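Methods: example folding runs. The two proteins below were folded one after another, and each record is reproduced exactly as written to the output file, sequence line first and structure-token line second.
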Amino acid sequence: MSLLIHSMSEFSDLILHSLQIAGARNIAEVGAEFGGMSQQLAAYARVAGGSLTSIDPCPKPEFIAWAGQTPEVRHIAEPSLDAMPGLRDVDAWVIDGDHNYYTVFNELRIAEELSQRDGKHFLAILHDVSWPCARRDFYYAPERIPAEHRHPHSYDAGVVPGDAGWRENRGFRGGGHFAWALQEGGPRNGVLTAVEDFRAQAGTEARPLAWAHVPAVFGLGVLFDSSAPWAPALAEMIVPWHNNKLLAALEANRLQNYLQVIEFQDRMAA
């Protein structure tokens, strides 16, 4: 993975600028891992006079050590759908946790309910809205997904662009750390599908939800209340990146190159 940039922190300039435009102070983050993005969000919150709440049931030890000595950071070691309902006064959500339809749809649903309750304009920034998670569920902990919402999956499945099926121990895979749904596409499958369904359900004439998709580094999505006073400025900043054809071509090229590296490694190991 060292050959393939994959962290949400690659988008830090866009993310922090979005938060600044929206005047966000208190940030809630889903998914911390090593804390690369968390540290930048905490630094932003410190300057803004706010706080960062980071939700991750099992982040890396480096994150735990850092969070424990950073006053503006609160770490909640619970799954997102358990932890989020207890939060208050969140100005913006940064979502990069378990990349599957059920989890992401319900993270957005809870975030919207809390925003409405607390009188906030909705702003959510999500990672992994492009391939491979856009239309295919990814499970860190499939046992947490209700059976009726869980697709057939495997920890041995690998995926490649353009193939809606799977390849055993070939392609882009988790090596036992995560599982892929065995089929790409169809209803209630994938992160982008979850965003689209949520937007269709939650958006109203009085509170329409605007969407921007930055098609690089597995995809960044910005979902926001277009009736907010800061929405025009945020749209002006993010729209040039939305479905940018050059970025999409570069992303497709880097993924194809990386899959070639994986194929070479697999042949050498055979």
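Second run, written to the same file directly after the first:
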Amino acid sequence: MVSLPSSIPADIQAEFQSLFEQLPSMEHGKLIRQVLETILRMIGREADRLDWKILNYALLDMEQGFQIFYPYRHVRKITIFGSARLPAHSPEYQLTREFAQRISQQGFMVMTGAGGGIMQAGNEGAGPEHSFGLNIQLPFEQGANPIMAGDPKLINFKYFFTRKLFFLRESDALVLFPGGFGTQDEAFESITLIQTGKSNPLPLVLVDIPGGDYWHSWDTYVRDHLVKRGLVSPDDPCLYTITDNVEDACEAISSFYRVFHSCRFFGDRLIIRLKADLSDAVIDQLNSEFSGILAKGKIEKGQALPVEKGDETETLPRLILHFNHRDFGRLHLLIRRINELGIHHPETDHPEQK
């Protein structure tokens, strides 16, 4: 039996108890129980109206996000960030539109903030059928761009933090074009989350117009003021790719998923799921090149762990290693090396599927 706060009316307590009794037989019942217990604990403690409003709106944001993205969970998605102020005739707008068109033709879907400028260019290039719009409700901004307005894949978020959660949760690659404070914020926060392991490894591509120096100047700052001073690791710039070529930007994304599928931590082990098996010779080479990122042991081939039984990736081959939780730049290099050394198989022809 669950101990419910005495402030809850008896009839509602009875409904809760009935629900808790059914949870063991429900899918994800353990997690659902934890969510409900958290809410019940809040009922029994002091909380003001604003606390409950924040919780309510955050849950509503997440509810609509989960519902809209669920049917597309097996399609890889690319988030495009960049300035909302660049007009349609600007070279940056045209470049974004071309990139979005190219990457959507490969089967990827595109996500933007649903605003103007670079965001509109991304939705325009991909087309509404391959686009998501993650809009934010602001009193001083216009609504969604005309490409996404009225589209069922447009989500209007109350909070920036829930919106950002879905950008990063659903993204399989982040592509940034020139922009202002918001773009810089997205660049540094994305790198921070990847560098600290709070986000799974994924391609981070910084795209400029041909001959442009926006991202190269940014990279110079990172190397001169962060790397040289020891404030970040020398390998951290490996977390991103800078290019002024649309085809190279698309290749940086598709090649990342040539053999690599996904990864996940289980206890002190990192499980790297692969779309095709690797030879013993390749495993030996990876151990020779990347032993420095291991806390102990070696990189070994393996199968799904018992806790992964029933997972949609259960049949995929795996690499199992004790990662040191520090060298995420080197981990990205390991993934690239896996994609380079892995033998091509027909099942790797669709990097846009997951």
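Comment on the second run: The mean pLDDT is 93.
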